[in-house]
Specification:
162 residues; 5 helices; four-stranded antiparallel β-sheet
């Protein structure tokens, strides 16, 4: 059995997939405001830049850039998961953690790699048939990026250029 070794790169940019135990659950979109609050709390104590974030009903695709001198994403995710689980238990019938134990990460190594992973995030709800257009999925940093002029609202897979 191989041993998984996580990246140790300081100040790196990373793509993550974080998944619920129950792949048929909609808890992430049903309680997206709770999730956002938990992320804000962790981010205030252990800063990171959100490059892209796509929340689906039962998983998330996320890109973070860590601060220079910091490579500790492995502590941030458990904190987010613990806070969300605790808050969810207070609001609902959940009795245990809703998360799969691990998360998947990929170190972004180039501008093309970053672009491809951002596109993957933003196209994911279309790929899964939740919506026919990225603009129609509300649980995404895509809308922030449209406001910043990085994407056109009618984006079709290409970066907005003027």
């Amino acid at each position: 059995m191989s041993r998984y070794i996580r990246s140790k790169r300081f100040g790196g940019t990373f793509f993550f997939t974080v998944t619920l135990k129950d792949r048929g659950s909609c808890v992430l979109v049903e309680h997206v405001d709770l999730l956002r609050e938990c992320v804000r709390k962790v981010k205030s104590k252990r800063p990171f830049e959100i490059v892209a974030w796509m929340v689906l009903p039962d998983d998330m695709h996320v890109i973070w850039k860590l601060p220079a001198g910091d490579n500790d994403f492995s502590r941030r995710w458990p904190l987010i998961k613990i806070l969300f689980t605790k808050a969810l238990k207070e609001k609902t019938h959940y009795k245990s953690s809703v998360w799969q134990e691990r998360f998947w990460e990929h170190e972004i190594k180039s501008d093309d790699d970053l672009k491809n992973h951002i596109h993957y995030c933003y196209l994911n709800p279309v790929k899964h048939g939740y919506v026919s257009s990225t603009r129609d999925w509300p649980y995404s940093s895509f809308h922030r990026d449209v406001k910043l002029g990085l994407f056109d609202i009618d984006w079709n897979g290409l970066l907005h250029t003027e």
